[in-house]
Amino acid sequence: MSEDLKTRVQELIDSMINPAVAGHGGFVELVDVQDNRVYLQMGGGCQGCGAADVTLKQGIERLIKEEIPEVAEVLDATDHSAGTNPYYTAGKA
Amino acid sequence: MPSSAGRLLLLLPTTTYRTEAFVEAATRLGVELVCASERPSTFEALAPDSLLTLDFADPGASAETIAQFAARRSIDAVVPVDDLTTVVAAAISQRLGLKANSLPAVATARDKHAMRRCLAEAGVRVPRFGLLRLADDPAVLARQIDYPCVLKPLALSASRGVIRASDAQEFVAAFHRIAAILESVEARLPDEARRALLVEEFIPGGEVALEGLLIGGTLHVLAIFDKPDPLDGPFFEETIYVTPSRLPQAVQARIAAVSRDACAALGLTEGPIHAELRLNERGPFVLEVAARSIGGLCSRTLTFGTGLTLEELILSHALGRPLESLERERRAAGVMMIPIPRAGRLVSVRGADDAAAVDGVDDVAITMHPGQEVVPLPEGWQYLGFIFARAETPAAVEHALRQAHARLHFAIE
Fold this sequence. Notes:
The complex is a heterodimer of chains A (93) and B (413).
Chain A: H1 2-21, E1 26-34, E2 37-44, H2 52-67, E3 73-76
Parallel strand pairs in A: 2-3
Antiparallel strand pairs in A: 1-2
Chain B: E1 7-11, H1 19-29, E2 32-37, E3 51-53, H2 59-72, E4 77-80, H3 86-96, H4 103-110, H5 112-121, E5 129-133, H6 138-142, E6 149-153, E7 163-165, H7 168-184, H8 191-195, E8 196-201, E9 206-215, E10 218-226, E11 240-243, H9 249-266, E12 271-280, E13 283-290, E14 303-304, E15 308-309, H10 310-318, E16 332-337, E17 344-350, H11 352-356, E18 361-366, E19 373-374, E20 385-391, H12 394-406, E21 409-412
Parallel strand pairs in B: 1-2, 1-4, 2-3
Antiparallel strand pairs in B: 5-8, 6-7, 6-8, 9-10, 9-12, 11-16, 12-13, 14-15, 16-20, 17-19, 17-21, 18-20
Helix pairs in contact in B: 1-10, 2-3, 3-4, 4-5
């Protein structure tokens, strides 16, 4: 079951998710699927980006759950503090 | 289509530090979010019902856009994050008929000169102030000012562009420096905010911050933060915030009372407020009341009841949900906004693990990355990072923060 989920999530990453985040120089890698929880790592412009959490929760997780309803949750395994080229950097208003 | 759990529009500037805190809070509360930013998300086309782009500088147009959206997907509450979104949030709330701060109240709070005028007229103690036009000759203006004074932009935050001047020469230099800062600001500011600046008397003494939540016009004080490092200028880089305050209870009560008077004078009635006050023997002076919650990552110092975050309180209040508790945790807590030692390019940060190992330190968050340009105040617009601590006493928190900071080494070239 886990392997099947992994395959389907990977297909979604390849066909829809990465083409979307590529617009901001980002990419997403599947780390693992355990207990119907998907673990992703964000890289490029997504790593350390101020909007990463919104992209993940409002974009990536919604899409994955819509397309693959068995997925319970999508979790971020990224070390955002190691990002060197985030697309949006935080600052004082 | 209505949402039974509550659908909340969250206004998130792409430059905010608060995205993770608010989004995680919504997840924990089971709140359905619609997120709007001023620049498009990469997923907007794939998730048009949850990711929107709005022109935060055009409240009218944004309100219309959301009204059309809400006609097919209802919005139950609007929460602004950071100063850039307070006015547009009020405009949207007004358009949708939602319970929120009025647009005039928020617009007044957003403009430091308008806020000063309003508070002064209501008898709330503020520094003596005046409005200066950037088109005027600063050398002439300098002869009309009492010193020391503080010059500041009308609509920036976190001490960006705030400069103390002790004489006419310093005044002229500060005037030109702030004019240059306003030219460089990327965010779309109101026209007046780019054409004028505020001058006010320098108030000697200490400074505090008050975090509060307005519920039906009543201000609930969530925390008073002491700022133990002196803020005497010429620049006003905030470093340490510690709560609970170590000021005498009578002084804290006075701070709370003045803050309540300020909110009432401005007409603010709902949602979070962050107030800054100067203190001396003449009493508290209100510097600012912002119709939004504390900035940066500083809200991590605050937990309530059984462990609710400030963001969970704000979202719950906005949706009209019962609030479990407004009581801050028993322990003292604090944050250091890591001071920027000098300008340059950040090469590396060493000692973060050692700093995090200091007794009482919860976390060290470095928010700039290697290769990034580091710019100190008054021009600087980004935090180098934050240190968070919790301990039994405010003194222990302050000690932990300073010890941790001493273990950090920033290579800036």
